[in-house]
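Colleagues,

For the teaching module next term, I've prepared a clean inverse folding example: a structure given as tokens, and then the sequence designed for it. I'd like students to try predicting residues themselves before seeing the answer, so please don't circulate the second half yet.
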């Protein structure tokens, strides 16, 4: 694309952006803008989709875009913008093999895109020379414009100081004053700000510039571990043997420690867990914190010992076996954390963090598997990070494909007989969940009474008064939801077609049906 055409396209997209998003909430306007964007990419031959990453990240971009209109959740928008940001890096350097480096390419494009915007100025030097006569005339005119503006300014000031003089000034400059007043009264500065934001976004999306150093580093990296020859064979062999012995001792000891912990977890968590009314927050958070620390340490330790020629040491079989055992035990630790989290959900219902823990454990298990493959097949750290980045992209894309607020509200009220229903938390869920949050007062009251008796049966110190100090009453909850319903219906009527989204449309329809039945 020629630079002059690029600038024109930038301004067109900035105007479209301002039209779609000026004083509008996100909704259908985002789908329209990106449909135009990808349509332009296809029309101008930029949408190639030849490499694996081009196809994968583009598919994730379209999927997350559809999730924004379907679910209209903060999480779906955060994931979509992150994937779109990543896709720009793929478009810049489609041959790159690591999504982490692609992400770095996108970050560098934030700054390099502006240099790309102004890089065409030198190429237009010939055109500038042809227009030099016109510019010279403009320069001459500029010398008169500035003094005239200064004269008008001082004439206005003198007019304020002397009313009689001001009357003459008003006769001469009255039309100019009226024009300026009309302009400033009717100009929409928020539209201008939206246009400028659209221009910034369009520069990032359209004026892409490659970071050559980052691409060369990515293409030079190898999936396979490369052996570095040391000419001092005796000292190198002695060093490898010592490192091997240290590894055997360290991983042998760590496996024994983790085995004892896993046996206790299997006995206490897997087989003989008994709920006695205790708060499970510490029970779950403890397991999750241990999981994070243990997994990170296991990965760091394995990568430390298998960072060099120990990979090629012929007698390293027992060290590898101990590492495999260590990774397997960490997988058991991850499963223990998942079981803890499932108990938390069983007795205290669903919440966003409890759902996030499950997705995190899936990624942890895959991370452990990738470390196992690295050791077994003598792969490089680049290979392991590359595979894990793909896993993160897929899992995060899938996680944005659900309306979690609706799922949480529906599930939690269905568990009224066997789990804690946290009214304070439920009252904060998004508007799309309102049809499931809108429960009859008598039902909410019955749930509340059950929970007071439920906690009291486990702990006599939890009185009705203490419980009420901690948690919202049924009346407070019903008033809160009634207020939110009225506010939501008012906001929905005020929304323009550009702000339309399926989640809130469905919620409005369902609330209307409920009101008709009542």
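(Answer key — instructors only)
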């Amino acid at each position: 694309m020629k630079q002059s055409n690029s600038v024109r396209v930038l301004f067109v997209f900035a105007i479209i952006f301002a039209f779609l998003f000026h004083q509008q909430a996100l909704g259908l306007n985002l789908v329209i803008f990106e449909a135009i964007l990808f349509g332009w990419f296809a029309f101008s031959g930029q949408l190639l989709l030849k490499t694996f990453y081009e196809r994968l990240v583009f598919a994730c971009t379209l999927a997350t875009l559809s999730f924004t209109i379907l679910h209209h959740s903060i999480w779906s928008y955060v994931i979509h913008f992150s994937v779109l940001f990543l896709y720009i890096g793929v478009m810049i350097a489609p041959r790159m093999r690591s999504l982490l480096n692609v992400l770095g390419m996108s970050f560098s494009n934030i700054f390099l895109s502006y240099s790309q915007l102004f890089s065409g100025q030198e190429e237009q030097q010939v055109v500038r020379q042809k227009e030099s006569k016109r510019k010279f005339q403009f320069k001459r005119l500029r010398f008169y414009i500035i003094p005239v503006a200064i004269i008008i300014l001082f004439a206005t000031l003198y007019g304020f100081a002397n009313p009689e003089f001001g009357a003459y000034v008003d006769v001469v400059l009255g039309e100019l004053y009226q024009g300026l007043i009309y302009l400033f009264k009717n100009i929409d500065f928020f539209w201008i700000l939206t246009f400028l934001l659209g221009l910034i976004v369009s520069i990032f999306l359209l004026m892409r510039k490659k970071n050559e150093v980052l691409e060369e580093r990515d293409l030079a990296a190898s999936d396979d571990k490369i052996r570095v020859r040391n000419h001092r064979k005796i000292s190198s062999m002695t060093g490898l043997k010592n490192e091997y012995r240290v590894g055997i001792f360290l991983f042998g000891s760590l496996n024994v420690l983790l085995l004892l912990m896993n046996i206790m977890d299997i006995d206490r968590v897997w087989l003989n867990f008994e709920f006695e009314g205790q708060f499970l927050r510490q029970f779950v958070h403890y397991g999750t914190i241990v999981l994070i620390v243990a997994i990170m340490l296991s990965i760091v330790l394995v990568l430390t010992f298998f960072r060099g020629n120990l990979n090629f040491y012929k007698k390293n079989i027992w060290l590898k076996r101990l590492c495999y055992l260590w990774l397997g035990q960490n997988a058991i630790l991850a499963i223990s954390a998942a079981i803890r989290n499932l108990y938390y959900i069983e007795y205290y219902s669903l919440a966003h963090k409890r759902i996030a823990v499950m997705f995190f454990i899936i990624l942890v298990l895959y991370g452990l598997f990738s470390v196992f493959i690295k050791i077994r097949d003598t792969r490089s750290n680049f290979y392991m990070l590359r595979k894990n980045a793909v896993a993160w992209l897929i899992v995060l894309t899938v996680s944005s494909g659900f309306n979690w607020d609706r799922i949480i509200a529906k599930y939690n009220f269905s568990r009224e007989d066997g789990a804690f229903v946290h009214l304070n938390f439920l009252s904060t869920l998004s508007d799309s969940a309102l049809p499931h949050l809108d429960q009859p007062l008598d039902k909410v009251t019955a749930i509340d009474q059950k929970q007071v008796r439920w906690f009291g049966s486990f702990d006599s110190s939890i009185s009705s008064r203490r419980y009420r100090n901690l948690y919202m009453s049924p009346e407070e909850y019903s008033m809160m939801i009634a207020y939110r319903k009225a506010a939501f219906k008012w906001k929905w009527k005020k929304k323009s077609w550009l702000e339309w989204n399926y989640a809130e449309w469905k919620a409005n329809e369902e609330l209307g049906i409920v009101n008709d039945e009542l």
